[in-house]
Amino acid sequence: MRIGFVDHHLNNYHADKFLSLVRGPLKDLGADIAIAWESDPTGDDWCEKNQVPRAGGIAEVVENSDAVMILAPDNIPDHLELARQVLPYGKPTAIDKALAFNTADARAIVDLSKQHNTPITSSSALAFAGELEDLLGQLDGEPSEVWVTGMGEWKNYGLHTLSMALRVMGASIERLVDTGTASSRMVTLDYGGKRAFVTVRAADNMWGLFPWTVGIRTSPEKYYAATIADYDKFYANLMRRNIEFFRTGEGGFPGERAMALVQVLEGADNSRAAGGEWVRV
């Protein structure tokens, strides 16, 4: 399987990580990064260094790939413009981290995927953390509550924490409220009888102090909980699921769940701006 990369700056951790996975631990899946394009190269020549053919434009990437990954992990507001150039070709496409930071852009991407019959998936790798996978395999019933914690600025890093909650509870959120502060976001998602609690804290010394954690409740008496520690595994799990998605159109975070993540990111900001009021999703 030929995968093409589309990015602004290929010299980033995500491009390096996904390349190393398909050429290393996931080599038996038969995929490789066959071609790549970046709008604004920085630093070393990433393509030359990694022996990946450099495309002259996005069209060349898509025409010479079986599937496409829109990366730009640090330029999420630009995902829509990149998607406008990729999705009309109909190739299965994974969009790194999140579709967008606002629902209008996310909806435009989903609409483009439907218009061109292009399968899309979009998710943080945290949704497929090994520790979370293990918890889901241990459950003795349907989740009634989930709580997740993490660190970082709400949009760029909060989406990682939020993705774990959506992996467990799904996209059918009725309303939400953010009762936190600018540096300590405390978001409650109401599923109409079930709830998810999302806490994201930001500080200069947050690294290591506020690890990603997840807890799932299946009955009045029982919780399952874990701390996310194996970073290599969640990246490998995401890339494995992306390759499965490219081949079958199934797996990963479907468009509905990817859309819900953006709605929560934006809805939490709206709730805070309204003084901590419940807002519909």
Descriptive notes:
The model has no long low-confidence stretch (mean pLDDT 96). The protein is 36% helix and 23% strand. The protein is α/β, with parallel strands linked by helices and 281 residues long. The chain has helices at residues 13-22, 46-50, 58-63, 79-86, 103-115, 130-138, 158-169, 231-248, 255-273; strands at 2-7, 32-38, 67-70, 93-96, 120-123, 145-151, 175-178, 184-190, 195-201, 213-219, 222-227, 279-280. The strands form two sheets. A seven-stranded mixed beta sheet has the order 11-10-6-9-8-7-12. Strands 2-1-3-4-5 form a five-stranded parallel beta sheet, sandwiched between helices.
Short description:
With 281 residues, the chain is α/β, with parallel strands linked by helices. It is 36% helix and 23% strand.
Topology:
Blueprint: E1 2-7, H1 13-22, E2 32-38, H2 46-50, H3 58-63, E3 67-70, H4 79-86, E4 93-96, H5 103-115, E5 120-123, H6 130-138, E6 145-151, H7 158-169, E7 175-178, E8 184-190, E9 195-201, E10 213-219, E11 222-227, H8 231-248, H9 255-273, E12 279-280
Parallel strand pairs: 1-2, 1-3, 3-4, 4-5, 6-9
Antiparallel strand pairs: 6-10, 7-8, 7-12, 8-9, 10-11
Helix pairs in contact: 4-5, 5-9, 7-9
